[in-house]
């Protein structure tokens, strides 16, 4: 039995290396002096170990401002979108109403609209109407994701029993009251999953901030790091340090809520 | 996605009938209120932009002053624009890589992760998923370092093994495409694996037992039990990969700038370049409309062919 398992575990370990080695190498590189980043053979552990890249990043760049911008925008976008998705998901999962099929179809089909299609008009509209302030405009693309509604709807159909809703209605609870006091608490695991996903989408987004933000004091993290990356001498050392810090909240959030996220993501797909 | 939706709505309605929600006789505004925030945002930030895109695509506009109506001229120009042809072709290549390489590979890995008695399944799954969590900037940075012509790790390894490195991964038109494809592979495979693994774990064990009783071998079991059971997941994964790859932007923008000689220019990059680097807003909008028609049309077609949602109906 043991012998037959060796190819399986061998393959899995090789894959693990392929997926994680580049990231570990980046982490290690952020603690290396600039010259050592390209050294061959590559050293896994930095020697000498230095915090110089981080220090220069913090002193020479408005790094924390970029960080704050990204994080706050992502948090607001996440909160709004999770609420919108829970509401709509509940509406679709537990009610029968005229036009439901059509409205669901319209919502669902927006999954097949590439962002590049609305990129130009969204930019034009927001700038022309004076709503182009990054604090508002940066969250806009993330607030009504069809994917999230679909995920919520699937989850609610499976895990919110109609009998509970009926009982609450007989007790005279208002529809929104039922949603707030009964449905939302039942949804907690999948809300967590959706929240992580939405946070990552907004936090890692690049194209929309690239188009929208021209004032470097309002850069998000990816934009700020990109300026170091594409500058005359590619400042690999600084970008590595910055990228490592940037990835911390994303990976931390993911690690804490990974179970819900991985299961939540696949719910819709498995049920078709 | 009409099929998907029709199939889907039917299941929920049936379920509602069985459990009694549907018996509620009162006409209520409640469901409309629940879905209205979404539709408000949907109209403002999706429908109106699409309409504006259509209108802009019929104009010439540099971003200032009034757009100048030109009818179908932008579309005629796109038709003969070699850059746009290249962008379409490159994007098609990336889509093919996603659907024909990344998706099957994800299925294979999921199959390995589904092996009976595998230890630490969640740990593997989590680790493989990490690349999609990471910011595209970090991805571009890492792969920029790996692919670097002079100092890159790949070339260093080649030099050490074969004495010749200096492969111009990002500077040679053919290799640049390969490099971008490798990055896609690294970023997306683990993500898609999650969906396949969930699908595999949902296949009823009895089906495998029955296949074993029939004396079916591994390959036969895979084609007669696993693949049919995975159909809904596969359909979902194929369509999402298609839509994702059709709008690829960050990888080529950050790694190659679309070059060399536009060999990695994607449609999204073409749109970005036209609008925000060349101030051809109308032209960019026309390219966006073409992308919309292609992606939207093809994903409807895929849904119909693959029958998303039909399995649950």
Give the overall shape of chain B: globular
Query: Biggest sheet of chain A: strands, sense, closure?
Result: none
Query: How can the largest sheet of chain B be summarized?
Result: 2 strands, antiparallel
Figure out the total of helices of chain A. Answer: 15
In order across it, which strands form the biggest sheet of chain B?
1-2
Poorly predicted parts of chain A:
none
Helicity level of chain B: over 70%
Order of helices and strands of chain B: HHEEHHHHHHHHHHHH
Query: Based on DSSP secondary structure assignment, what is the total number of beta strands of chain B?
Result: 2
Radius of gyration of chain A: 23 Å
Average of per-residue pLDDT values of chain A: 88
Structure report:
The complex is a heterodimer of chains A (272) and B (313). Chain A has 272 residues and is mostly helical. Chain A has helices spanning 2-29, 34-37, 52-60, 63-94, 100-109, 115-128, 134-137, 146-159, 162-170, 175-186, 188-203, 207-212, 221-229, 236-256, 258-271. In chain A, helix 4 packs across helix 13 and helix 13 (221-229) packs antiparallel against helix 14 (236-256). Chain A is globular. The mean pLDDT of chain A is 88. Chain B has 313 residues and is mainly α. In chain B, 73% of the residues lie in helices and 1% in strands. Chain B is built from 14 helices and 2 strands. In chain B, helix 4 packs parallel to helix 8, helix 8 packs antiparallel against helix 11 and helix 11 (231-246) runs antiparallel to helix 14. The two termini of chain B are 15 Å apart. The relative contact order of chain B is 0.15. Residues 1-20 and 309-313 of chain B have low confidence and may be disordered. At the A-B interface, helix 1, helix 4, helix 5, helix 6 and helix 8 of A face helix 1, helix 2, helix 4, helix 5 and helix 6 of B.
